[in-house]
Design brief:
about 325 residues; Rossmann fold; 7-stranded mixed beta sheet; 7 strands; binds S-adenosylmethionine; transferase; S-adenosylmethionine-dependent methyltransferase activity; Methyltransf_11; Methyltransf_Superfamily
């Protein structure tokens, strides 16, 4: 019989209160609650659009040498967005998805099964990874480091479970400066959308009040789960202190983040499915154009700490097995 913890998608008021002072409990409640709707909320798919997105993030910080890696581990997998799309791109041949939230692990395993990928999974805390030393060729994560109380401890664990010569790649981490402007833009978009959709003529664009109230309660937990923002140079130091070789941080998305945060917040503020595939493609293409501008023009003149997303990589030293 499995001893895996079960998802708890309907937290009680007492649990939510306790979670205000416990970042890990908050992560479990918040992400169990979100697991069922997460892919829709963040426009996550397992087709060409997100395969390209995931593979491009990986290439940007770690290049293409070593593809395909053998066995890969994802920490804080959520519904599997990063690893499942990387596997579809040919970055790794088999994988293990892990997350603190049982609901997310279940969702990721369901997605992997639909895609026919060689993936297993379990509930795991990144600060105490339940795998033996030297198990993996690659460890990845997307938007997870900023939720982990002790990032250096988690990176030490990552290096422990990597084989000698193995690599880690974490993407989608907010920088200190990027987070400041993204939050302001997101909050302004939420307020504008939920205010304007009170107008009778826009009623069809308003989510039911109960759902909006639930989102606001979740937002209170979001403030507890978002523990860190990163300065690129400090994150490199943290990875080096954890024992990584060749620790490198690159950043991306400046103008693209200024578009992306309002767009994602707007998508979350209107009824699911209302915007359709045409909107998703329009938003994605616009984001792509601005990303091109960021990468090819603005990165030459804007300091790296001002870009929204940080990506970090490094390897485990020692003879490659
Ligand atoms: C923002 S979500 C990102 C999910 C997914 N990687 C993605 O990009 O769509 C962060 C995930 O990290 C998980 N998480 C938070 N703290 C964790 C920890 N200490 N160990 C493992 N996972 C954790 C959460 O449960 C959540 O699923």
């Amino acid at each position: 019989m499995s001893t895996e913890p079960l998802p708890n998608p309907h937290a009680t008021a007492e649990e939510v209160e306790a979670a205000r002072h416990d970042a890990k409990l908050a992560n479990v409640l918040y992400h169990d609650w979100e697991a069922g709707s997460y892919d829709d909320k963040w426009s996550i798919s397992y087709d060409e659009r997100c395969i390209t997105y995931a593979a491009d993030r990986f290439r940007l910080v770690a290049g293409e040498t070593g593809w395909p890696y053998g066995r890969a581990l994802e920490l804080g997998s959520g519904t599997g967005f990063f690893l499942l799309n990387l596997m579809q791109a040919g970055v790794a041949t088999s994988g293990s998805v892990t997350d603190l939230s049982p609901g997310m692990v279940q969702a990721a395993l369901r997605n992997a099964e639909h895609l026919g990928l060689d993936v297993d999974g379990r509930v795991a805390d990144a600060e105490r990874i339940p795998y033996d030393d030297g198990t993996f060729d690659l460890v990845v994560g997307h938007a997870v480091l900023h939720h982990i109380p002790d990032v250096e401890l988690a990176l030490r664990e990552v290096l422990r479970v990597l084989k000698p010569g193995g690599r880690f790649v974490f993407a989608g981490e907010p920088t200190r400066i990027g987070d400041a402007y993204a939050r302001r833009l997101g909050a302004a978009t939420w307020k504008a959308t939920t205010t304007l959709t009170r107008l009778p003529v826009l009623q069809g664009w308003r989510r039911p009040q109960a759902e909006l109230d639930e989102s606001s309660r979740a937002a209170a937990l979001e403030a507890v789960v978002d523990i860190h923002v990163f300065d690129p140079a400090e994150l490199e130091d943290t990875a080096r202190r954890a024992g990584a070789m060749g620790a490198t941080v690159v950043t991306e998305e400046f103008s693209a983040a200024m578009l992306g945060w309002p767009v994602r917040t707007f998508e979350a503020a209107v009824p699911p499915g209302k915007l359709g595939m045409g909107w998703a493609m329009f938003a994605y293409r616009s984001w792509q154009r601005l990303s091109w501008l960021d990468q090819n023009v603005l990165s030459r003149v804007v300091p790296r700490a001002w870009f929204y997303n940080a990506l970090v990589t490094g390897t485990k030293g020692g003879p490659v097995g």
